[in-house]
Amino acid sequence: MRAKWLLVALGAIVLVVGAALATNLLVAPAPSGYMSRDRGVGYYPACGNEVLEHEGLTWYPIGRDAWEGPSAQAAPASGGRGISTAVTMVAPPGPGDDVGTLYVYSMGRAYWVSESGNLETWLTIVPRSYGYVC
Asked: Which of 35, 79, 84, 108 has a CB 3.0–4.6 Å from the CB of 125, allowing a cystine?
C-alpha cells in the first residue's frame, strides 16, 4: 500500500515539475545584449527577401540555412528560437504586423519583431541575394 502512494506522489511531482518547465520554456525572455533598440520600425517580412532600410543602413533578412545561429548574446531576443525561416506565401499584414522593434547587435546583426508578435526575423548588413522573387 505504501509503495502505491509513493508512486502516486512521484507521478504528481513529475507532472507539476513538467508543467512548470513547459510554461517557462514557452515564454520568450526579454531581448538582452543589444547595442540599440528602435521601436516603431516599419517592415513587413512577407516573403523573406524584403530588405529593411533604417537609419542609413540596409538590413537583409537571413534564413536558417544561411547562418548557423545568432551569437550567444543575441539568442535571447528570439526566445532561444534562433533564426526564423522564410515565409512561403504572402498575406496582407494584420494589425501590428508591419511595424515593430528592431534590436541591433554587434557584428552587423539585428532582430526585428512585429508589434503583434506574429512576425520576427534576423537580419544582417552583409548584402545578400535571394534566388526567388516574391
From this structure: 108
Question: Where do the structural domains in the chain lie, given as residue ranges?
Answer: 30-124
Q: Can you list the alpha helix ranges (DSSP code H) found in the chain?
A: 2-26
Give this prediction's pTM.
0.61
For the chain (134 residues), the mean pLDDT of every run of 10, in chain order, is: 72 58 41 87 90 95 62 49 50 89 90 92 89 77
Q: HEC profile for 15-54?
A: HHHHHHHHHHHHCCCCCCCCCEEEEEEECCCCCCCCCEEE
